[in-house]
Amino acid sequence: AWELAAGGLIALTAPFWTRIPRHLSAVLAWGGVGAIVACAWMLDDSTIYPGTAAAIPVTATAAILAAGCAPRYHSIERLLGEPLLQGIGKVSYSWYLWHWPMLVIFPFIAGSSLGWPRRLEVVFLSLFFAILSYHIVENPVRNLRRLNFEWMRTAVALAAVVIAVAVIVSNVVVTTGQGIAAGAVTI
Known about the structure:
The protein is mostly helical. It is 80% helix and 0% strand.
């Protein structure tokens, strides 16, 4: 909740951020991007999450948002305005929802932890699913003019199936994972 609140706070204080000097806006934007990139390399499996380490990427993202409130163009906008990055931005929430479960479940399926090349493959596979879900689910729902009863019934049925599958898969993974962990201890 506090991560969402940070973005909300920037939105509520946007008039303040529009008045910051151009050079400070650029420092906030580039500093935020630099901190996010640094987090990608510094935070790893040993990082306690959720925890205080989450404050770094959240603060960095808030800095980028604050810098974006300023009504002047600076170099970070050129970078973040590239079509590829704009496309990734459009599916970023879907990607956020897909990547973490896949990074957690795939090691259980493989029976061991994944190295960087395999993790990268899983991340790109999750991007593929994010793009699909963005175009098949997220965008159509967002663009609905109104919800009709037939659509709602189908949506509720689909949600029930997805939840049931998630519960079954989670139970299998947890059961299998505990068996693997217990086997590793006894060997």
